[in-house]
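quick one, 305 residues, struct below
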Amino acid sequence: MAQSFSAPRKRAASPRFRIDLMPYLFILPAVVIYVIFNLGPVLASFFLSFFRWDLLSPTTEFIGFKHYNFILNDDRFWNALSHNFIFLGLAVVIPVSMGLFLAVFIYEIRKGRVFFRAALFLPAIFSGVVIAYVWKWIYHPFAGVLNPTLELVGLGAFTQSWLGNPKIALYSTFIAYTWASFGYSMVIFLAGLQDISTDIFDAARVDGANFRQKLFYITIPCLYDVFTFVITLRIFTAMGVFGVIYILTGGGPFYASDVIDIYVFRMIGNYEMGWATAAATVNTVVVVFLSTGFIKYREWRSWSS
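---
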């Protein structure tokens, strides 16, 4: 009997392959937007740093690393970078500590938790421009409220021009930055506290642990990953601070509160686009080095312990 043969059927595409591909299709629009509006400008800025361009001329001139050589020998650049590092050191300690203790306070109280959470987070919802103008009015030597308040409570000897004194101008701007930023740290820590099992705190309470012991032996160790995220966030914001300082002091007086972003903005105002982008590129490298180094250090400590 003759046997009938039929052409082999094509195997259907594996459904598993389609399922594995689906997550990438969902994030594809976000990736495209990120590349176009974030990664693209960064790469274009790096490319532009090797050219001389005055923003108005249609032509550019390739000059290699001359802009980098100039800014690395510019005292004003190092002065601005040192102020960013001062900001960073203070930002890692003060807003983070305030956020942690306020989060613990809200977590511990029984009544008014929603009110305190909303009231303490309120400054963070305002734009940096609004916050800067509020503090500019507070610091005003004649029409502000800080100096009259100090005189009212008998501390008139401390009244001064808070934004006009080169010795304290940078720290005055940092207070405004702290007022605007501690709320973010507080909310993130509060979310981390809610992930800690209440059984741990109940057991510690039964064993007679006081507030300090619960904080240092339970709360802080359980918030290890949260600390990593919060401090990394502070690195990015402190190294990229601009609006608050620009409105309060403009980097003055006498460059006493100058930071890298204001330095870059000043170079753009002078039509030195290559110079400005070179400074911005160096700042980006510093931020990536600091954030990556900190995360790797935390991972090493976690692994070694």
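The domain at 76-304 is CATH 1.10.3720.10 (MetI-like fold).
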